[in-house]
């Protein structure tokens, strides 16, 4: 039975990309009974009635999934932030990094508009920090075309979603990658990257040898599903040394002989990262319980 990847879901139809092209499929009736909802990005086996139509027979196990946008089996999230206009926001970047890593998606940090800075020292220090934590970081100028050429090797062979700071040029980058997207560049709201996107569905578009989600990014930046004891796992520089804390289960706030707090005091871990960690911890602690 042939296999493929769902690249679009619309009005009850699933468009499955396989080696033989795209087949428009319906889900089996048993899916609804078993509460199975195929997602864009799912690997499925399907039975083709002809060259263009068929039925999805089975949905393979997912390696990850996002709720908003509803998409599965993402290899990476390209987090687009600007060095200037708007100013770089490490707090917002750290929020995205935690959410992406908690979803088991690999983040790549992409900084745009570096050429608009008069003094690059501060942004260079941030980038050096994030590379030392273990993240891939690329810097682009405000020239979109030049940026695209740097992005292409990262996109090739991967399934990617773009997300990040508002007003940084995510839509412009995607439009240059694939003009057919025709994303509106002025309709991303200023509040947490929530997009007034013109399309009502998520679609994977073939770009530069990979698949890119046609979506303006995440519509929720809350730490849903992340528990207090898990948060440090998503700060790699803390996760690496947390085993040296005196107490097992240390959450690096008030505990004595905490290796993380010692590393902050010795400036091995930047203070701004620890401040963001404490801020996120307060949000998680203050979350209303759901019954």
UniProtKB/TrEMBL annotation:
Its cofactor is Zn(2+). GO terms for biological process: ribosomal small subunit biogenesis. InterPro entries: G_CP_dom (IPR030378), NA-bd_OB-fold (IPR012340), P-loop_NTPase (IPR027417), Ribosome_biogen_GTPase_RsgA (IPR004881), RsgA_GTPase_dom (IPR010914), RsgA_N (IPR031944). GO terms for cellular component: cytoplasm. The keyword Zinc applies. Its main location: cytoplasm. Its EC number is 3.6.1.-. Keywords: Cytoplasm, GTP-binding, Hydrolase, Metal-binding, Nucleotide-binding, Ribosome biogenesis, RNA-binding, rRNA-binding, Zinc. Monomer. Associates with 30S ribosomal subunit, binds 16S rRNA. One of several proteins that assist in the late maturation steps of the functional core of the 30S ribosomal subunit. Helps release RbfA from mature subunits. May play a role in the assembly of ribosomal proteins into the subunit. Circularly permuted GTPase that catalyzes slow GTP hydrolysis, GTPase activity is stimulated by the 30S ribosomal subunit. This is Small ribosomal subunit biogenesis GTPase RsgA. It comes from Lederbergia lenta. The gene is yloQ.
